[in-house]
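Problem: given the chain below (100 residues), write out its structure.
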Amino acid sequence: MYIAMNRFRVAPGKEAEFIEIWRNRETFLDEVPGFKRFNLLQGPTDEECTLFASHSIWESEDAFQAWTRSEAFRKAHANARPAKDIYLGPPKFEGFAEVL
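Solution.
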């Protein structure tokens, strides 16, 4: 199993807009071999931002890497234009391989 996460820092008061972007986004993940599940997670809020993480589960890191090189990935990201007033910087990727 492999978990791929992108952590986002979202401007205070923009959480609903951020969630709506993801709710309406076509991911094409169902077209990709090895994809298991996707979640959008909301974390803590402080005076600077609210943390969110996109969290996808894959059969293996190889399956995830194949997704990043696929036509489905290009389609899913073709219209991804971060709104400057929502995102506080680029997302931070974190990948985790199952060890136990």
